[in-house]
């Protein structure tokens, strides 16, 4: 559809945008050492859709006529490529299936409503005709919350909210904006920024994901230390159900029984379709600066992040990479091409040499980034206060140069996964959250579990992590792991990913901090929220959707 932006059908992001390593001289040696994989130049830039065989649509003429009467014929599509764009998200499992052309079950029709009453009409039709409706935002999910049941016999409708893409109003006194659910992150920020405001919510998927999708999957952004997770940001909602519309007004707080707002956030389309949200917005800060620090060890870095979190210093984010992720980050540095950059690179090499002479193990060092926003004088005060805390843990202040580079590259990482798949290599992520007292335990448990799983599969594997999203009681740990694909891609992946996920639970963490549940994480739900908790969710979904028409099977079956 010309009026709605979509990612490429076979991978992440835009056609023609790729991860390049030729200009990163340390990257290929790093991959060889970490994964025992010899990188080669990229052999293809795209995958021709003409090579794909797409299952025929099962939507009958009566259903199609009814849908067209709701939205107009031009907003109902049977196009094969659009159906594949909407068939799944971007998890490793889904990408492997997509690249292999293995489409067990594909949406039969894609519908683009342009107003809330059209969403309501589609849902009423779903109940009347016993259709399955799967809401679709940007398609960035990596928890398989979009993938249909391969045994589903009913007509499946992918309900794409992309036409609902406007910032409707801003209450400048209250700092609240009313925004349609289908707006992509950059389009929303452009509309807000034009009036001097920002939502401040920037997940890794920001470029290609939507506000409604963030709420439906309980997202967290890179800057949640200041702006909060999406559950903190969303104050009001409009949620369309087959029998009517749930309207939650944007109140600062309320004591009106169990929180319907909390119930809907994270429900992944099982309770209805979010069409509109009332959200906190903030004036764009006068100054923004990201400062980098280097710590001698992971434990010292974690202690410093905890000290920052429990201090009165207000940061926008504070994150630290462990030694493995720090080494990876350094390997992605581009070769210097100007005199200034060559001088900077030489200075970095000299700094590492000085650190080694002072007793640092440069293989154990950990890089951290802290973001400061506000008035210039206040930013300077906070930077000085944080410098005092990190230096107590032996850190060196690297300054704003590396921090600015991190800020520029923060949305590029997902492209690396497509590059690795083209190299017959898996790169994937798992994230958790745990109390401060258990972070070190969870970190070690995940590493140990991954290494055992790699060994069991006969693989040279790699795992790395960073800490982000600090809270009063704990923080998020975000892990990335990689290995070369063997004879059984799906079995190998399931074994390794499951080992890491189980380690989270066993060590006291949660199954997911912000990626949601979908199908990918549902096997751990009973361990995370208790069998009775799962039964309560199951009864909720069954009672509110007795026909199983709303994204069935996700979160709990």
From TrEMBL:
Recorded superkingdom: Bacteria
All copies of the FAD-binding PCMH-type domain together span 103-284
Residues binding substrate, per UniProt: 417
- Which InterPro entries does the protein's record reference? Alkyl-DHAP_Synthase, FAD-bd_oxidored_4_C, FAD-bd_PCMH, FAD-bd_PCMH-like_sf, FAD-bd_PCMH_sub1, FAD-bd_PCMH_sub2, FAD-linked_Oxase-like_C, Oxid_FAD_bind_N
Key words, A-Z: FAD, Flavoprotein, Oxidoreductase
**Which residue positions hold the site described Important for enzyme activity?**
319
Its needed co-factors are:
FAD
Sites where the protein binds FAD: 135-141, 204-210, 217-220, 268-274
Q: Which GO terms describe its biological process?
A: lipid biosynthetic process
Task: Give this protein's Gene Ontology molecular function annotations.
Answer: alkylglycerone-phosphate synthase activity; FAD binding; oxidoreductase activity
- Which positions, given as ranges, span the membrane? none
Please name the catalytic residues of this protein. 478 (proton donor/acceptor)
**Which family is this protein grouped under?**
Belongs to the FAD-binding oxidoreductase/transferase type 4 family.
Q: What is this protein called?
A: Dehydrogenase
Q: Which organism is it from?
A: Kocuria turfanensis
């Amino acid at each position: 559809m010309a009026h709605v932006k979509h990612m490429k059908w076979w991978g992440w992001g835009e056609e023609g945008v790729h991860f390049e390593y030729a200009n990163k001289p340390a990257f290929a040696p790093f991959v060889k050492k970490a994964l025992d994989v010899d990188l080669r130049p990229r052999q293809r830039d795209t995958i021709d859709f003409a090579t794909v065989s797409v299952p025929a649509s099962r939507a009958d003429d009566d259903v199609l006529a009814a849908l067209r009467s709701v939205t107009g014929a031009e907003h109902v599509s049977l196009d094969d490529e659009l159906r594949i764009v909407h068939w799944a998200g971007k998890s490793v499992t889904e990408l492997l299936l997509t690249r292999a052309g293995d489409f067990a079950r594909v949406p039969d029709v894609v519908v683009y409503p342009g107003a809330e009453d059209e969403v309501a009409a589609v849902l009423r039709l779903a109940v009347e005709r016993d259709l399955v409706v799967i809401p679709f935002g940007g398609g960035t999910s990596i928890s398989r919350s979009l993938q249909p049941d391969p045994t589903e016999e009913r007509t499946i409708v992918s309900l794409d909210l992309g036409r609902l893409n406007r910032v409707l109003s801003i209450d400048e006194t209250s700092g609240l904006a009313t925004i349609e659910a289908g707006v992509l992150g950059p389009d929303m920020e452009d509309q807000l920024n034009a009036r001097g405001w920002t939502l401040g919510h920037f997940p890794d998927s920001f470029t290609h994901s939507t506000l409604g999708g963030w709420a439906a999957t309980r997202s967290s952004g890179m800057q949640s230390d200041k702006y909060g997770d999406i559950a903190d940001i969303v104050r009001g909602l409009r949620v369309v159900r087959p029998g009517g519309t749930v309207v939650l007004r944007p109140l600062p707080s309320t004591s009106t029984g169990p929180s319907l707002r909390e119930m809907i956030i994270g429900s992944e389309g099982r309770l209805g379709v979010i069409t509109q949200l009332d959200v906190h917005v903030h004036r764009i800060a006068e100054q923004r600066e990201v400062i980098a620090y280097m710590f001698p060890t992971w434990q010292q870095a974690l202690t410093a992040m905890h000290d920052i979190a429990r201090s009165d210093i207000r940061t926008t984010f504070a994150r630290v990479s462990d030694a493995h992720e720090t080494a990876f980050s350094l390997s992605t540095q581009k070769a210097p091409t100007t005199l200034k950059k060559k001088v900077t690179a030489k200075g970095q090499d000299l700094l590492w040499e000085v650190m080694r002479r002072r007793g640092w193990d440069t293989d154990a060092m950990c890089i951290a980034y802290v973001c400061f926003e506000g008035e210039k004088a206040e930013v300077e005060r906070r930077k000085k206060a944080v410098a005092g805390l990190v230096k107590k843990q032996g850190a060196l202040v690297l300054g704003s140069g590396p921090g600015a580079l991190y800020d520029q590259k923060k949305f590029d990482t997902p492209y690396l996964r497509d590059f690795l798949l083209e190299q017959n290599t898996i790169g994937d992520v798992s994230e958790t959250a745990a109390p401060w007292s258990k972070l070190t335990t969870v970190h070690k448990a995940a590493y140990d579990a991954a290494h055992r799983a790699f060994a069991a599969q006969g693989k040279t594997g790699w795992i790395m992590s960073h800490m982000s999203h600090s809270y009063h009681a704990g923080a998020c740990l975000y892990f990335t792991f990689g290995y070369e694909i063997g004879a059984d891609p799906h079995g190998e992946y399931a074994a390794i990913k499951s080992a890491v996920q189980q380690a989270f639970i066993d060590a006291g963490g949660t199954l997911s901090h912000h990626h949601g549940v979908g199908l990918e994480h549902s096997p751990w739900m009973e361990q995370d929220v208790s069998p009775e908790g799962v039964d309560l969710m199951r009864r909720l979904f069954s009672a509110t959707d007795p026909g199983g028409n709303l994204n069935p099977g996700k979160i709990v079956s």
